[in-house]
From TrEMBL:
Protein name according to UniProt: histidine kinase
CDD domains from the UniProt entry: HATPase_UhpB-NarQ-NarX-like
This protein's record includes keyword Oxidoreductase: no
EC number: 2.7.13.3
Domain of life: Bacteria
Transmembrane segments: 7-27, 33-55, 67-89, 95-120, 132-156
Pfam family, one: HisKA_3
Organism encoding this protein: Nonomuraea longicatena
Record bears the keyword Mitochondrion: no
Keyword tags: ATP-binding, Kinase, Membrane, Nucleotide-binding, Phosphoprotein, Transferase, Transmembrane, Transmembrane helix, Two-component regulatory system
Segment forming the signal sequence: none
Occurrences of domain Signal transduction histidine kinase subgroup 3 dimerisation and phosphoacceptor (ranges): 177-236
Catalytic activity of the protein: ATP + protein L-histidine = ADP + protein N-phospho-L-histidine
Amino acid sequence: MDGQIRWLSRGVIAVTSALWALTPLAFLVTGDVLSAAVSATLLGGLLVVYTRAVADRVKGAPAVRPLRTVACFALIVYGALPFLGPVWIYTPFTVAAAGLLLLRFRLAVTVLVAVTVLEFPLTRLLQDPSPVAALQNSAGVSAAAVVLFGLVRYAASVRELRELRAALADNAVDQDRARLAGELHDLLGQTLTSITLKTELAAALMPLDRQRAVGEVSSAIAIAAEAREQIGDVVAARRLLDVGAELSAAIALVELAGADCDLHLGISEIDERTGDALGWVVREMATNIVRHSDARHCRISLDSADGRIRLLIRNDGVRHEPGRRRGSGLDGLRRRVAALGGALTADATGDDFEVRVWLPVADDQEKVVSVDSSTAG
């Protein structure tokens, strides 16, 4: 587990320990030191087992002997009731909490209901014959167990979300690799076929028409040179992107990872080269938000002012990873933007990360790319 998950687990155990410690404290307040020591020993032992179960649940590991563990909780808690008396009457919530944590849903709910129902007669018998007091104890036991389980489930959900984000980022990388492989396959398949046909034709013409054969060889060389340039373009990612489609895809990816994304568009169309550069920025930053942050909120703004097109991408939840090597993504984006006479800045402030891009409006170029984010479908 990473640092955040460890701190969440410790927080869950801290809250649980504080709640469980109320019973020994109650004995101390009443002056019963022996009962306080006995209850602290019993609950301390149960807490050790519960702590291990919490750690396994947060990490996603399967429970070890869940039925036996819950039965052990019930035996200790209910077995001590005749000896520890009314103050011990609240501790059955630990049995319900263990059941919710360790057992499958239906069996866990059954244990919770059984503990809640059993609390009513036990309260009337050992503490207060009033039905109101018995109902209050039953509700309190049930609520305490559910709250403890909710804390554990929240910590586990954070871990699951982190894994989902990592899987989404890896999937995005795999898709880009598959796209690159597909482009190279399509490009080289046609190119190599043309070169093969022309060289075969040249070989056949060599004894009959040497001049035409030389022409076919020259043509094959030209095709090979063009293919080499096209392969370089594919590998260097020098291909045009639809900024509208990239905005739509970025919002979908960020929101799928669990963050809210606000989009503000103050411009309706843009020239092709500028849209391509902005599309790459949007794609790279969306991937970085998913892979390197625990973002809850993201804002993307695209507008124009003072003869410049402005793009802002901001997110919270920056994950501080001292051991992570700095990637070359932002440097590549800066070069791409600078080639069009613009600038890109990236700043981290606390848990927020912000990227700003300024590009000059290309008035001499036809506005051919729509920035409507619905273009991705």
